[in-house]
Amino acid sequence: MEFPFDVDALLPERITVLDQHLRPPARRPGTTTPARVDLQQQIMTIIDELGKASAKAQHLPAPITSASRMQSNRHVIYVLKDTSARPAGKGAIIGFLKVGYKKLFVLDDREAHNEVEPLCILDFYIHESLQRHGHGRELFQYMLQKERVEPHQLAIDRPSPKLLKFLNKHYNLETTVPQVNNFVIFEGFFAHQHPPARKLPPKRAEGDIKPYSSSDRECKRGRMDGVGLGTQKG
Ligand code: ACO
């Protein structure tokens, strides 16, 4: 994915991590430095375009990732740059992974409600021309190390069939724990929660529980795929 400005100079590293401040990374010595506001505008353009491409790839009616959403949430986005040599190079972006902590009520394998705040996979996209080349795995691995989480500790916001295959192939995540919200968790989730998952009082009636799963995808119906397409635990 190319842009009308110098992506290589803007994002010096192969993977750039951005939070709600969308701060342009420090530039390489010797590179001319445009005004900071222009650099931030370029970063916002990249995020908006990536968000649009991801929504299109997932058949979502509108993007769930944009610069303005980034600024109003405590999400973190990992952006992967193409570092292969290009003759007239302004650089290009391969894809991104967006994560964030969310308070969720999730069911365990005995169907008890648990209040948890796991790191969630919120949006993930690799450019169509470069899928199945290992770039998704590279980005995901980097995120796991940086966030210090294990794959089975994650909650996934309405994973696409491709993402379910990806998680199965690279991380052996297959057996899901059935949920009533959009989020998918896998076997091992409760064994590895830090801090431990908090159980709600057993007496509380189901109607009282507000599963504020705040999925960005809830109002973005229209994607063809479903939840829990992996093998579900009976
Ligand atoms: N069909 C089936 N499985 C696929 C496909 C596909 N078209 N593409 C990737 N995969 C899975 C497979 O397990 C594949 O292994 P295989 O080729 O041996 O079958 C594996 O991913 C490949 O791993 P990587 O090359 O590291 O993954 P990639 O760079 O393709 O990134 C990603 C994976 C992000 C899911 C990418 O395919 C993509 O952008 N898909 C479209 C958008 C999407 O579905 N994003 C997830 C939305 S859900 C969410 O974000 C919470």
Automatic annotation (TrEMBL):
Query: Basic and acidic residues bias: where?
Result: 203-224
Q: Which reactions is this enzyme annotated as catalysing?
A: L-lysyl-[alpha-tubulin] + acetyl-CoA = N(6)-acetyl-L-lysyl-[alpha-tubulin] + CoA + H(+)
Q: Does the keyword Chloroplast apply?
A: no
The signal peptide annotation in the UniProt record is: none
State the EC number(s).
2.3.1.108
State where the protein is found. Cytoplasm; Membrane, Clathrin-coated pit; Cell junction, Focal adhesion; Cell projection, Axon
The annotated regions of Gly residues compositional bias extend over: 225-234
Q: Which family does it belong to?
A: Belongs to the acetyltransferase ATAT1 family.
Name of the molecule in the record:
Alpha-tubulin N-acetyltransferase 1
Q: What organism is recorded for this protein?
A: Jaculus jaculus
